[in-house]
Amino acid sequence: MKLHKSIVAFFLFSICYTILLSGYAVAHQVTFYVHNKCPFPIWPATAPNTGHPIIADGGFYLPCGETQRIIAPWDWNGRIWARTGCNFASNWQPACETGDCDGRLACNGLIGTPPATLVQVSLQGDKKKPDFYDVSLVDGYNLPVSVTNRQMSTKCTIGGCSKDLKSSCPIELQVVNKNGEVVACKSACLAFNLDSFCCRNEYGTPEKCKPNVYSRMFKDACPSYYSYAFDSPPPLVNCVSKEYVITFCPSSWGSEEHTSSL
User: Per the record's keyword annotation, is Membrane included, yes or no (predicted)?
Assistant: First the structure.
C-alpha cells in the first residue's frame, strides 16, 4: 500500500512539475505573427544574433494572404526579412531573387544576401521592460514591411512605405532579375562601398557621416525606417508586449508598387 501511495504521489508530482514548466515556458516566450499581404508569395527568413537560437528553422514559405505564427524566447535578438522570387526546386544559385541565404529554404542561421528590408529585433527577456525593434534600409530595400504589437498600439507601430522605392530606384542602385524587372534597390553603401556612404573609418561618427541624396530618397519613401547608419532621430521603437505582428506589403504600401509587382 505504501508503495502504491508513493507511485501515485510521484505521478501527481510529475504532472504538476510538467504543468509548471509548461507555464514557465509560455511565460518566457514571445509570439510573432508574420503576415503576407503582398500579391505574390514570399519566403520569410530569420537569423539570430550570436548566442541566440534559430527560430522557425530560419525560413519558410508564406503564400499571399496567409499568416505564420513564430515562437521566440523572450530574450531573442536577431533579424527577420522576406525573400522574393524563390525557386528551391531548381539548381539555380541563388534560389531567390532577393534575400537569398545560400539557396536554402531554411536559412538555419545564415544571413540573407542584401539588399533586403530588415526587421531588427531585441527582446529584453522581461515583460516589464520594453522590447526594441526597427526596420532598416542600411543595406537596401526589397519589400515594405510594418511592425506593431497585437493590440496595434500607436507607440508600438512602425508603418510601411508611402512610395514605391523599386520604381523610383536610380539605375546605379537597381537589382534587376533575368526578366529585366527591378526587384530590389541597393543602399549607397552596398552599391559603392565608400566610407562616406557606409559611415566607417573617418566617417564613423554622426558628426562626420551625414544624410546623402540616396538616403534622403529612402527616407522620403519610408520615413519610419533607418535610411542610413546614423539616421537621426533614431527610428527605434520600444514596446512592452508578448505578441507582435510583422506584415509584408502592409495596407500603407503605395498603390503603384502593388501594380508593378503583379
Answer: no
Stretch 198-217: mean pLDDT: 97
Q: Averaged over 46-64, what is the pLDDT?
A: 97
The b/e string for 27-45 (b: 16+ C-beta within 10 A; e otherwise) is: eeebebebbbbbeebbbbb
String of DSSP letters for 8-72: HHHHHHHHHHHHHHHHHHHHTEEEEEEEE-SSS-BEEEEEEPTTS---GGGB--B-TT-EEEEEE
Whole-model pTM? 0.85
C-alpha grid cell, residue 6: 508513493
Phi-psi domain of 118 (left: phi exceeds 0; alpha: psi -120 through 50; beta: other): beta
Ordered by where they begin, the domains of the chain are 2-261 (2.60.110.10)
Per-residue confidence (pLDDT) for residue 6, from 0 to 100:
53
Euclidean distance between CA atoms 115 and 137, whole angstroms: 8
pLDDT digits (tens, 9 = 90+) for 160-189: 999 989 999 999 999 999 999 999 999 999
Q: Which three cell numbers stand for residue 96?
A: 531567390
